């Protein structure tokens, strides 16, 4: 079998069109407001924040990019967050990670009003996800769920295996797909470096989600015939002749595509969905703020 390619760019574009229409529909009552706070000049962070700002503007948001020097103190950053927590025009606050070492990331993320936590990292939102009452799903896992749904794969009753247990990808996607809800209700297994026999688990997966941060962690012999494979990994494996970073996922694409029924490429799979889900969360936050459905 040669797998169908799951085109994240196409799905993301489709959702962005839907969001654009939604923003136009509600604009007389509320304009979604998003602030992205960037501390320092880490090149990867600059490019992520720039892409988020660009997308939010394209969708018709009120958006602010707040750039701060890497020397900002923790207290000053907390004050800044407090200012945006109180700003009625701002519905979503995103602090781009990582932060400089002298700032406690956990303290900063906890300072964001959970109602404006469009990244879904505040413990209140993590807890709500756990009990099946999430307001905001974290962006990458939410994007993965949307990709699977829009691929037409049946999640209800499926054997889902997640490789990786990080707080930003592995655990939340496992939690999302476990809920007794539409677009979920799967039997979920999580693998990690302590797992004794990875292949035993991965070979049972109808849907295999890989977020290990290791190139070729999954090869064709570890995958069940006909599985849907979602490769979350983004690994820099060298440079292109044009001087750009050469990227690879966590899945050995060439061998796995011969077994899977559908597979995400890297780049162009999960990546484009993450920003789109941030936009979706911001629109939702604005609607909740304005009391409209
Ligand atoms: P992380 O915090 O490093 O976690 C990696 C997880 O994978 C850990 O739980 C680790 O197990 C497990 N693991 C590592 N090697 C393994 C192996 N050989 N077998 C089984 N489990 C293994 O990484 P993350 O933040 O979740 O990110 C994972 C990947 O996704 C990275 O490449 C990252 O760049 C990418 N990512 C992409 C997006 C996007 O938008 N496309 C967003 C976020 C992350 P232990 O817990 O036992 O150490």
Distinctive features:
binds NADP nicotinamide-adenine-dinucleotide phosphate, 2 domains, six-stranded parallel beta sheet, 10 helices, Rossmann fold, alpha/beta, 293 residues, three-stranded parallel beta sheet, 39% helix
Quick structural gist:
The protein has helices at residues 8-26, 43-58, 74-86, 105-111, 123-130, 139-151, 170-178, 198-202, 253-256, 271-290; strands spanning 4-5, 33-39, 62-68, 92-95, 159-163, 187-191, 207-210, 228-231, 235-239, 245-248, 262-263.
Q: What is the general shape? A: globular
> Could you tell me the number of beta strands?
11
Number of domains: 2
Helix content: 25-40%
How far the N terminus sits from the C terminus, by CA atoms, comes to 44 Å
The top-level CATH class of the largest domain is: Alpha Beta
Description:
This protein has helices spanning 8-26, 43-58, 74-86, 105-111, 123-130, 139-151, 170-178, 198-202, 253-256, 271-290; strands at 4-5, 33-39, 62-68, 92-95, 159-163, 187-191, 207-210, 228-231, 235-239, 245-248, 262-263. Strand 9 (235-239) and strand 10 (245-248) form a beta hairpin. The mean pLDDT is 96. It has two domains: 29-115, Rossmann fold (3-Layer(aba) Sandwich); 138-270, 3-Layer(aba) Sandwich (Rossmann fold). It contains ten helices and eleven strands. It is α/β, with parallel strands linked by helices and 293 residues long. The protein has a six-stranded parallel beta sheet. A three-stranded parallel beta sheet has the order 3-2-4, sandwiched between helices. The protein has a two-stranded antiparallel ribbon with strand order 9-10. Helices cover 39% and strands 17% of the residues. The protein binds NADP nicotinamide-adenine-dinucleotide phosphate. The site of NADP nicotinamide-adenine-dinucleotide phosphate (NAP) has 26 residues, from helix 10.
């Amino acid at each position: 079998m040669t797998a169908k390619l799951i085109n994240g760019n196409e799905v993301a574009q489709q959702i962005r069109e839907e969001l654009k229409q939604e923003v136009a529909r509600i604009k007389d009552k509320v304009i979604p407001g998003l602030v992205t706070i960037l501390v320092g000049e880490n090149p990867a962070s600059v490019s992520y924040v720039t892409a988020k700002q660009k997308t939010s503007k394209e969708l018709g948001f009120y958006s602010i990019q707040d750039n701060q020097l890497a020397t900002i103190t923790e207290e000053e950053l907390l004050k800044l967050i407090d200012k945006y927590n109180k700003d009625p025009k701002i519905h979503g606050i995103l602090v781009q990670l990582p932060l400089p070492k002298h700032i406690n990331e956990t303290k900063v993320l906890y300072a964001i009003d959970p109602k404006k936590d469009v990244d879904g990292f505040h413990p209140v939102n993590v807890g709500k996800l756990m009990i099946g009452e999430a307001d905001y799903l974290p962006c990458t896992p939410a994007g993965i769920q949307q990709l699977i749904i829009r691929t037409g794969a049946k999640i209800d009753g499926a054997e889902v295996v997640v490789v990786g247990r990080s707080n930003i990808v592995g655990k939340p996607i496992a939690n999302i797909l476990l809920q007794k809800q539409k677009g979920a209700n799967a039997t979920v297994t999580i693998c990690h470096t302590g797992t004794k026999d990875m292949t035993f688990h991965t070979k049972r997966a109808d849907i295999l989600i890989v977020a290990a941060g290791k190139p070729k962690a999954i090869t064709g012999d570890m995958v069940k015939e006909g599985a849907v494979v979602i490769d979350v990994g983004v690994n820099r494996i060298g440079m292109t002749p044009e001087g750009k970073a050469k990227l690879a996922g966590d899945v050995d694409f060439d061998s796995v595509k011969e077994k899977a029924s559908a597979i995400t490429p890297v780049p162009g799979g999960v990546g484009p969905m993450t920003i789109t889900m941030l936009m979706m969360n911001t629109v939702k936050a604005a609607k909740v703020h304005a009391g409209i459905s």
